[in-house]
Design brief:
Layout: E1 2-13, H1 17-28, E2 33-36, E3 53-55, H2 67-77, H3 84-103, E4 110-111, E5 114-115, E6 128-130, H4 144-156, E7 160-162, E8 165-173, E9 176-184, E10 189-200, H5 221-229, E11 233-234, E12 239-246, E13 264-266, H6 286-298, E14 308-311, H7 317-322, H8 325-331, E15 336-346, E16 349-351, E17 363-365, E18 370-371, H9 382-405, H10 412-426, H11 437-452, E19 456-457, H12 459-478, H13 484-509, E20 518-519
Parallel strand pairs: 1-2, 1-10, 2-7, 10-17, 16-18, 19-20
Antiparallel strand pairs: 3-6, 4-5, 8-9, 9-10, 11-16, 12-15, 13-14, 14-15
Helix pairs in contact: 1-4, 1-9, 2-3, 3-9, 5-13, 11-12, 11-13, 12-13
The protein binds flavin-adenine dinucleotide.
The site of flavin-adenine dinucleotide has 40 residues, from helix 1, strand 8 and helix 9.
Length: 528
């Protein structure tokens, strides 16, 4: 197997909005930067799937909004479990970050020369901007309107791109992070990337679940990499499940706005069930809707494909044509569509301070992989804001630290450690063997997460998930990879198992229901 030693001032793991923002900022400060991603930089991760809503308080047409209000709304949305310092950074630097995006040719929807700002649930004022993806060839990945211009700029600035690479571990020397190891996903090649600073920007964990809105590469690796290296994590039990995702492809994340115009949820028996779960009925919050639909499906009242119906029969046809034209197109003349709750966003993550320092020197984190900004639940449009605001912060701060301590080549001890890692990879020399043991374990893990660590959680189910993950961890450690493909699968499932374990453990430990975390066995639920 080919073994490569790479060197940079800063390694950024992740090629979405957070990673690109961090990389560009660090490069601008004069650092040699490598960005590594499982897929193509700017074309992998959840950013490309985003609906392009970004929250920021702009002084726009006499809007009565303020930074203080954005902070207040975000704290309330997170059930006050948010890190207030991080929320202040999010809201305070959002306008500057939007400006930065504009300077980098990210197009925003405008009217008469002004950026359009809209309202959104949980935001007490109009502060949601939309990146204009209308010029894109495909509307399936609107977020390319964000990542496209940033990727072009990164190439222009000479940022090195390590694409189709699975980062398998961080290099830890005496408690300090000094780089990472990885495997090429396309050809038989192992890397050690020696760097003075490592910025984790590897997104959330949606694809640990069988039904998700996330891209396949977003599997919680960042939580596992950080935890294995010794960094602290927090709030992993808080996962947002979107209640209305179509089960047929193309998978569509349906807006919940039609519920305010007469749409309803029904089960397989045509029963409107939301009033049994909330006095607000079909206008309940997205969490409550997800919990209700999940309960209906689990009780055997879902469709044969484990879904419920979103029924548009009560929405005025004129509204369907004007306000919900995309849904109308999707329905192709039908009045209802099968939907189910899908894993959407991880609120928790790696503990950071307001400079994106983790608890380990040399390791920084930003974007969805970091925890603390959203508390127990996230307001719509705050995730892209988080990715760009904290991406820029991480890049700037990591660069300043690295340049202060830059001393050129890695020292001898470090080289020895890199060599050890290489040997670890070299042990698995190609010898063809037909087995997909690791892939089967990945599927088992996703099923387990979907069953026991999903929208509605019980102590017994969470305990079962932990026990079974431990057994799977033992199984993979006893199964020797026989070829390069299996070696890759081994490292991928190892990260996923650890990440699944950490989420299950956090969900078991929090016995109360709070925000997006619903413990059906909590004695406090009557007040929930
Ligand atoms: C369908 C959908 C719609 C959304 N709409 C909105 C919206 O309108 N507004 C909003 O605010 N938020 C929205 N979100 C959430 C938002 O898109 C994400 O939270 C945000 O884009 C995350 O950005 P990121 O840079 O942190 O991670 P991502 O964009 O997910 O990037 C993660 C990167 O890390 C890489 N990676 C992961 N693991 C490894 C590894 N082991 N080795 C190497 N690379 C790795 C991936 O390949 C990828 O390049 C939406 C999410 C979805 C799924």
């Amino acid at each position: 197997m080919e073994l490569l030693d790479l060197h940079a001032d800063i390694l950024v793991i992740g090629g979405g909005l957070a990673g690109l923002s961090a990389a560009l900022q660090a490069r601008q400060a004069g650092c040699k930067v490598i960005v590594a991603a499982k897929g193509k930089i700017g074309r992998s991760g959840n950013t490309i799937m985003a609906r392009n809503s970004i929250a920021a308080v702009l002084d726009n047409k006499g809007n009565k909004d303020s930074i203080a209000r954005h902070i207040k709304d975000t704290m309330a949305g997170g059930d006050y479990l948010n890190d207030e310092k991080l929320v202040a950074v999010l809201a305070g630097e959002a306008p500057e970050a939007v400006n930065w995006l504009m300077q980098h040719r990210v197009p925003f929807l405008c009217e008469e020369g002004h950026v359009i700002v809209k309202g959104s649930p949980g935001h007490s004022a109009k502060r949601v901007l939309t990146v204009d993806g209308s010029a894109l060839k495909s509307q399936k990945t609107p977020g390319l309107a964000i990542t496209g211009p940033l990727t072009q700029e990164a190439k222009k600035q000479g940022i090195e791109m390590l694409e189709n690479v699975l980062i398998t571990s961080l290099l830890n020397k005496g408690g300090e992070i000094i780089g990472a190891c990885g495997l090429d996903r396309r050809r038989e090649r192992a890397f050690t990337i020696n760097s003075r600073g490592v910025i984790l920007a590897c997104g959330g964990a949606g694809s640990l679940y069988p039904f998700t809105t996330n891209t396949a590469d977003v599997t919680g690796d960042g939580y596992a990499l950080a935890s294995e290296a010794g960094a602290k994590l927090k709030d992993l039990e808080f996962i947002q499940f979107h209640p209305c995702v179509t089960i047929d492809s193309p998978r569509l994340v349906l807006s919940t706005a039609p519920f305010y115009d007469g749409a309803i949820l029904t089960n397989n028996f045509g029963e409107q069930y939301m009033y049994q779960y909330s006095v607000q009925g079909n206008m309940a919050t997205r969490d409550v809707m997800a919990q209700a639909s999940f309960s209906e499906i689990n009780a055997g009242r879902g469709t044969g494909r484990k879904a419920v119906f979103m029924d548009f029969g009560g929405v005025e046809p004129g509204f369907m044509a004007s306000k919900y034209a995309d849904i109308k197109d999707y329905l192709q003349g039908k009045l209802k569509v099968e939907v189910a709750p899908a894993a959407h966003f991880e609120m928790g993550g790696v503990v950071i301070d307001d400079h994106c320092n983790t608890t380990l020197p040399g390791l920084y984190a930003c974007g969805e992989v970091a925890g603390g900004v959203h508390g127990a639940n996230r307001l719509a449009a705050n995730a892209l804001t988080e990715a760009v605001v904290f991406g820029l912060r991480a890049g700037k701060h990591a660069a300043a630290e690295v340049l202060r301590h830059r001393s050129g080549k890695c020292d001898e001890n470090q080289s020895v450690q890199l060599q050890c890692k290489k040997q670890q990879f070299s042990e698995f020399l190609p010898a063809h063997h037909e087995s997909n043991a690791f892939r089967l374990i990945t599927q088992e893990l996703c099923r387990l997460m979907g069953r026991h660590v999903s929208v509605v959680r019980y102590k017994a189910g969470l305990q079962k998930a932990l026990n079974e993950i431990e057994i799977m961890q033992e199984r993979i450690n006893q199964t020797e990879p026989h070829d390069y493909r299996q070696l890759l699968d081994y490292h991928q499932v190892k990260l996923m198992l650890l990440s699944g374990y950490l989420i299950s453990q956090a969900a078991l430990q929090r016995e109360e229901s709070k925000g997006a975390h619903y413990r059906a066995d909590s004695i406090m639920n009557s007040e929930y």
